[in-house]
Specification:
eight-stranded mixed beta sheet, 18 strands, Rossmann fold, 2 domains, alpha/beta, single chain, 21 helices
């Protein structure tokens, strides 16, 4: 991956948090692989190639006047993005040598996104060290050239001298030497001049150094550090370790740093999401969404919603259709609601239920309202076949069959598609299937509430709201497993530009406190980037299932938004 020319890898799981690790001069991200290997089960790990190193871009000419400043600017942009992608909006910064100096400055500049700072013999140089390295610049360049010309021999010699290094890092060390920007090496800049930055740190910091001759801090540096009297900084000297402390003494390094992270890098509880006052009781009244036990879930739905009925004056007709699969069990009922008189539009309204529950008649009251929202419509809701008895693409084919029937039965009035949650996902799936058959051309606009689209559950909102309200990661995991059936099944939604370009104009409404939030936003972006007219809304205080709660201000606003969307003139759009 790359950001502003900085190459980096991402691995691990964000259980405890996110670590961003920075290497020393002439090394690369691969030389940090042991960090990822050690912590990947509990931390998401970013390993960065710094500017002029590894696969990152080389320095621009103007940047070589102050290469350290340029490195900080480029790396900081990646750190900010890593924090933005983390659940806590914070990261642990971990840096060796040059990377430690860079991490120190970033932690000083943006402490609000840094949970903790780990410095491995950082290149915060005394005046004497600064001059020494600047004067040795020619020799540094020559060493890089020698390693590049004799890689095998260089690795062999390295293994003889540094016997405790992780095996994975010998080759990475040599690779870094072949990749480093020689113009940068020629500047002799290996870190930052001075240690005043340590006085300014406001985040928990651990500085680790060794006791061999090549260390930058050592006992003398730790004494200087102690004199600062900073309550934020703790330090440790690991015996029999050189400048490359972690590589020389990995067990002791990981023991000490792990203990530090356990004390100071704990993620606090997430802020309570704002919930609209009128909707708070809905959370308490909604049964737990246990999609593993889908039969009980269906039974509870029947108990709660069996007495739902259409509004007064609304007629109900049921049409038996088949999906066209030509199997023994592919028929279903399309439940059509209308008022007396000639309809002015027709709406395919697809119910939710995680692909495994729900029924068309449960939505009779809401669909009665949609008759008026869509200006005197026939609102038709398919009782599509449910998973796991009927996995993908059964339900989507039923919705496509319904769409085809409505287009044929009402050819002269506008045709709309409306879906909520899994119903919105099925709307997208049916339209994607229908795009190959030219069916999408019959649909004037689509309205998707809190769409359930992506079985991967990789968006940030799935981390932030994995425990709900209402819909959870556990519920989603089981529901998708039931719906997809075979785990090797290609997911029903992939971000195809060609398919997106065939979609009708869309209104998408997402909830701020909903694990599905970000996939709805991403779908809106996919449509916009394909040239499709799209509106995206998010109302304050809503969560999954809250958008159409009867007699609420929220549902009133959603209906007003739909009316406004339908009334907005949209010029014809072209497909790719």
């Amino acid at each position: 991956m790359a950001n502003h020319g900085i190459s980096y890898s991402v691995s691990g799981r964000e259980v405890k948090g996110v670590i961003v690790a920075l290497h020393g001069v002439t090394d690369n991200a691969a030389s940090l692989s042991d960090i990822s290997q050690h912590w990947k089960d509990e931390w998401k790990i970013y390993l960065l190639d710094t500017l002029g190193h590894g696969l990152s871009r080389h320095f621009f000419d103007a940047e070589l006047a102050d290469p350290f400043k340029a490195i900080v600017a480029e790396i900081r942009s990646v750190v900010v993005e890593a924090a933005r992608q983390s659940t806590s909006r914070k990261v642990v910064l971990m840096g060796h040598s040059l990377g430690g100096a860079v991490a120190s400055v970033i932690a000083r500049d943006v402490p609000e996104i840094v949970q903790a700072l780990v410095l491995e013999d950082p290149a915060l140089l005394t005046d004497e060290q600064w001059e020494l390295y600047r004067n040795a610049a020619d020799g540094l360049v020559k060493r890089q050239e020698l390693v590049t010309e004799h890689v095998g021999e260089a690795i062999t010699e390295l293994m003889k001298v540094y016997t405790a290094w992780p095996a994975s890092e010998y080759g990475a060390w040599a690779q870094g030497k072949t990749q480093v920007d020689r113009r940068f090496a020629a500047t002799g800049v290996v870190g930052m001049r001075g240690r005043d930055v340590l006085k300014e740190l406001k985040v928990p910091t651990l500085l680790v150094t060794g006791d061999k001759d090549d260390v930058l801090f050592g006992k003398e540096g730790l004494s200087e550090l102690e004199n600062l009297g900073s309550s934020q900084i703790s330090s440790v000297l690991i015996s029999d370790a050189s400048h490359t402390v972690r590589r020389d003494q990995p067990e002791e390094f990981y023991r000490l740093v792990g203990s530090f992270l356990d004390r100071y890098a704990k993620s606090g509880p997430l802020p309570e999401p704002y919930i609209a006052l009128e909707l708070k009781d809905v959370i308490e009244a909604t049964p737990k969404q246990n999609t593993d036990d889908y039969l009980t879930m269906r039974q509870r739905g029947e108990e709660l919603l069996s007495d739902v009925s259409p509004a007064e004056g609304v007629e109900v007709d049921e049409v038996v259709l088949d999906s066209g699969e030509q199997t023994d069990n592919d028929s279903f009922v399309l439940r059509c609601l209308r008022r007396a008189g000639n309809p002015r539009s027709v709406v395919l309204s697809i119910h939710g239920g995680g692909y495994i529950a729900g029924a068309a008649r449960y939505d009779d009251a809401r669909n009665s309202e949609l008759i008026d929202v869509f200006d005197g419509a026939v609102v038709a809701s398919p009782d599509y076949r449910l998973a796991p008895e009927h996995p993908w693409p059964a339900a989507a084919l039923d919705c496509l069959s319904s769409l085809r029937y409505l287009a044929q039965t009402y050819p002269k009035i506008p045709l709309y598609v409306y879906g909520d949650s899994a119903g919105a996902g099925l709307a997208q799936q049916a339209l994607a299937l229908g795009a190959e058959q030219g069916m999408v051309a019959n649909v004037d606009r689509i309205v998707l509430l809190e769409p359930c689209l992506e079985p991967g559950m990789v968006t940030k909102s799935f981390d932030t709201y994995q425990d709900g309200p209402i819909w959870t990661r556990a519920a989603s995991t089981s529901a998708w497993r039931h719906y997809l059936g075979d785990p090797t099944t290609v997911p029903p939604y992939v971000p195809s530009r060609e398919v997106a370009a065939k979609m009708p104009p869309a209104l998408i409404v997402v909830n701020p406190a909903d694990p599905l939030r970000d996939e709805g936003v991403r779908f809106a972006q996919d449509l916009a980037d394909a040239g499709i007219p799209v509106e995206l809304h998010m109302f304050p205080g809503t969560f999954h299932g809250a958008l159409s709660v009867p007699n609420t201000v929220t549902w009133t606003r959603v209906k007003e938004t739909i009316r406004s969307f339908l009334a907005t003139p949209i010029s014809s759009h072209s497909s790719l």
